[in-house]
Write a structure and sequence with these properties.
Chain B: It holds the Pfam family SoxZ. The complex is a heterotrimer. Chain A is of the alpha/beta class. Chain A contains 18 helices and 25 strands. In chain A, strands 7-8-10-11-13-12 form a 6-stranded mixed beta sheet, with helices on one face. In chain A, strands 5-4-1-14-15 form a 5-stranded mixed beta sheet, covered by helices on one side. A 4-stranded mixed beta sheet of chain A has the order 19-23-17-20. The longest helix of chain A has 16 residues, at 432-447. Helix content of chain B is 0%, strand content 54%. Chain B has a 5-stranded mixed beta sheet, with no helix packed on it. Chain B has a 3-stranded antiparallel beta sheet with strand order 1-3-6, with no helix packed on it. Chain B is built from no helices and 8 strands. In chain B, a hairpin with a 4-residue loop joins strand 7 (85-93) and strand 8. By secondary structure, chain C is mainly beta. Chain C is built from 1 helix and 7 strands. Chain C has a 4-stranded antiparallel beta sheet with strand order 4-3-6-7, with helices on one face. Chain C is globular. Classes of the chains: A alpha/beta, B mainly beta, C mainly beta. Chains in contact: A-B, A-C, B-C. The interface between A and C is large, with 48 and 24 residues. The complex binds manganese (II) ion (2 copies). One manganese (II) ion is lined by residues 126, 157-158, 213, 257, 280 of chain A.
Chain lengths: 540, 108, 135
């Protein structure tokens, strides 16, 4: 209730959250994976986030109580609420929403005031997609807001789902570079984006190399960006590091959208990178992970956190650091008035529609987690019933925020779970074998023991069926016991099933938009109550 | 079938002894012989099976191509240039057609 | 189809013997050594129909010491042969990039034969995936 909330928030103050003993001569400020969340959100961190192979049990593959213990965080504390799923609903009521670009602006402006010109603000991408307004304006709302925040460089991933023409148009208009050392023109194999930029801050030469999401044309529709080829291209990064040092860089920073495990492996193999600002896998870690003298920074998602990394750089080398993962408590950090006004302006044409109530929920709705989330359970239920399917598939995106039990589900909430440029809901027949092949394929993208073969999404969500998964088994043999829930019968590889799903990467996928399908279902289900999802059993 | 159109990228000039990078593309379906048409009949193989690059008449680089080479065969390779001259590029089709193009380089 | 599945049932894949036969034909019996040759290909193919592959061989490329040929194999294709490339001292360096078809997830192999008959080998697994669904 209100009383508890007020009491808890007394312990927090803007000053306590933002004050930091300045250290060294350069500050890097990192935001990433904002997913177009202009307003404060609830975002439940995952309960299941498995690591395989060498990274099993290592951060970020630590959740809940284990996470609290590892980082010595008091259960029930603001940090516990921000960083884990433990007691999420109760703590959300206590500590309120997080993020909001007006609050982020307050944080950034304060650091800028403290550090003056000795600061770089870097945006790790997945910035322009993820909301109703971003989808309606094809990213323009976020570009306008970010330009006001003033990053020094960015890289990208979901940005590319606006298609090559739109991306080129937006990038050409940016007052700062969009970096992508790993993006090549697919025909002549020549760099398609600026790979890196050298900045001078506080007498320090800082090389920032940009790394876009390596598997953009695989995880997202290739047909939208036919002229560009991506990939990890480790050898290119190594070459850019050498080049940067030869050009006099004192500090080399990789602004990366690789995903945490890919960056951890990269740091172990490529010498000379001082800092990797990681992104894509939406991990929030209160301390850097240090690999081969490289600091790996994980700044979370959805505007929940801003990373501040103070560095002491002397004689061409990094001598020390001081780091703060700043949790953006929306009720504690005052909104920046200028930014708040700009956000109101870009949202004004849509405000009435955004607030329209579609239903209420008795169940906490969230997505993030390796195997299922209640928001996808809701989507799968809508797909099964509205499209009269045997089986539903919903992509394991890591974006999408949370809705608390007892709250309304608004148009804004629904679109935050599915705002994208290829929303068609297909309905088709697939053999049991094809369904199995899909699950195996996605499982390997998540659990291949070599991070360079991972894509950084979560497992595809299923409705109408259950299965067992052995994450550490070999490629092609992780999935077993596939069962149709309706009949309790095993899924027959030779039989056809009616499958409905969304977000197909194939061109010319036909069907209604996912938000229309879910809205229709919510009309018939004005109070959402979801049962515990037991469709995925984890083995091994 | 669309005409097979070769395109090459060769630097206009270089210094004596430089190793320059050459890129070549030719539009061609590279029909592998593995595919079947709508009636289920095998589509006969028709690929570029040989690519050659010479400089002033001497071979620099060549390739024997199998059906696993992608449509629109692409090659990127290097050449050491000690004098001005002309690169000649030749592609040989299974059907006997030969496609060629040239590019001159000024070496000083 | 919503998901394109590469390859297909009933396709006759190359056997390990086919790959070994192709290697033997190229090496003339010399045992492939590791080192000197680097095969580069994406870990995951963006499109199985056109997968970039680069091979670089460490060699001075002089009249006395050069790379005679490089062979590229894809051991999981219906036929493992991809291409055989011939270099000369005029190549300046033994580097080549081309694009190939991969029917499914498999190892790609590159072999280099030096003018003295010695052979070097490198390989890399390239995943061909259905795509999508991640994020
Ligand atoms: Mn993201
Ligand atoms: Mn991403």
């Amino acid at each position: 209730g209100r009383w508890t909330r007020a009491l808890a928030q007394q312990q927090l103050s803007e000053d306590a959250l933002l004050s930091m003993e300045p250290f060294g001569n350069v500050t890097l400020v990192h935001v990433t994976d904002i997913h177009a969340q202009l307003k404060p959100v609830y975002f439940r961190e995952p309960s299941v986030n498995l690591g395989v192979g060498e990274v099993a049990g290592l951060p970020p593959h630590v959740t809940g109580a284990d996470f609290l213990e590892l980082y010595n965080i008091e259960p029930g504390s603001p940090e516990a609420y921000a960083l884990t799923y433990e007691d999420f609903t109760a703590l959300a009521r206590t500590y309120g929403r997080m993020g909001g670009m007006d609050r982020v602006a307050t944080v950034v402006k304060r650091i800028r005031a403290e550090r003056g010109d000795n600061m770089l603000l870097l945006d790790g991408g997945d910035t322009w997609q993820g909301s109703y307004t971003a989808n309606k304006t094809l990213g323009a709302d976020m570009v306008e807001v970010m330009n006001a925040l003033g990053p020094d460089a960015m890289t990208g991933h979901w940005e590319f789902t606006y298609g090559a023409d739109r991306v080129t148009e937006l990038v050409d208009g940016l007052p700062f570079p969009f970096l992508g050392s790993n993006i090549y023109d697919a025909e002549w194999n020549e760099p398609a984006f600026e790979p890196m930029t050298m900045f001078e801050r506080g007498g320090v030469n800082i090389a920032v190399i940009g790394q876009a999401f390596p598997y953009t044309p695989i995880a997202n529709p290739r047909w939208m960006i036919p002229g560009w080829s991506f990939g990890i291209r480790e050898e290119d990064i190594a070459a850019h590091v050498q080049e940067a040092r030869a050009d006099g860089a004192d500090l080399v920073v990789l602004l990366s959208h690789n995903g945490f495990d890919v960056d951890r492996k990269l740091a172990s193999r490529v010498d000379g990178i001082d800092v990797i600002l990681t992104g894509h896998t939406h991990d929030a870690l209160p301390e850097p992970v240090i690999v081969n003298d490289t600091l790996l920074i994980a700044s979370g998602s959805n505007g929940k956190f801003v990373s501040r990394l103070d560095l002491d750089v002397r004689d061409g080398a990094m001598k020390g650091f001081s780091y703060r993962l700043i949790p953006v408590f929306a009720d504690v950090i005052a909104p920046d008035a200028e930014m708040a006004a700009l956000i109101d302006k870009v949202r004004a044409p849509y405000e009435a529609e955004l607030a329209r109530e579609l239903a209420r929920t008795d169940t906490l709705l969230y997505r993030r987690g390796n195997f299922n989330g209640t928001m996808d359970d809701l989507i799968c239920q809508a797909l099964l019933e509205e499209r009269e399917a045997d089986i539903a598939l919903s992509p394991g995106f890591r974006w999408g925020t949370s809705v608390l039990p007892g709250d309304a589900i608004t148009v804004e909430d629904l679109h935050t779970a599915c705002a994208m440029t290829y929303p068609a809901v297909y309905r088709s027949t697939m053999s049991g074998q094809v369904i199995r092949d899909i699950l195996e394929d996605v499982a390997d993208n998540l659990f291949n023991p070599d991070p360079y073969y991972q894509q950084g999404g979560d497992m595809v969500r299923v409705g109408g069926m259950s299965y067992t998964i052995a994450p550490t088994a070999d490629m092609g043999s992780r999935i077993s016991d596939m069962t149709v829930l309706k009949t309790g019968e095993p899924i027959d590889p030779g039989r056809d099933y009616v499958v409905s799903g969304w977000a197909s990467v194939n061109e010319n996928t036909e069907g209604p938009a996912i938000w229309d399908v879910v809205e229709a279902w919510l009309k018939d289900n004005p109070v959402v109550t979801l049962k515990e999802n037991g469709s995925v059993r984890i083995a091994g | 079938m669309a005409e097979s159109k070769p395109r090459v990228k060769v630097p206009k000039s270089a210094s004596k002894g430089d190793v320059v990078t050459i890129k070549t593309l030719i539009s061609h379906p590279m029909e592998s012989g593995q595919r079947k048409d709508k009636e289920g009949n095998p589509i006969p193989r028709k690929i570029i099976n040989k690519f050659t690059c010479t400089f002033n008449g001497k071979e620099v680089f060549s390739g024997d191509l199998d059906p696993a080479i992608a449509a629109n065969p692409y090659f990127e390779f290097n050449a050491k240039v000690d004098e001005s001259g002309t690169f000649v590029f030749t592609w040989v089709d299974d059907d006997g057609s030969v496609y060629t193009t040239e590019a001159a380089i000024e070496v000083n | 189809a919503v998901f394109a599945v590469a390859g297909g049932r009933g396709t006759a894949w190359a056997s390990t013997e086919d790959t070994q036969k192709a290697i033997d034909a190229f090496t003339g019996g010399a045992a492939p050594q590791s080192g000197r040759i680097t095969l580069n290909a994406p870990e995951i193919a963006e499109n199985g129909n056109t997968v970039p592959v680069s091979v670089a061989v460490d060699s001075p490329m002089t009249d006395d010491d050069y790379v005679a040929a490089v062979m590229i194999l894809a051991e999981g294709n219906p036929n493992p042969n991809v291409a055989t490339l011939h270099f000369t001292p005029m190549s300046g360096s033994a580097d080549v990039t081309t694009r190939m078809r991969l029917a499914k997830t498999q190892n790609v192999i590159a072999l280099a034969k030096m003018n003295d008959g010695s052979v070097f080998m490198d390989k890399k697994e390239v995943k061909v995936t259905i795509g999508g669904c991640g994020g």
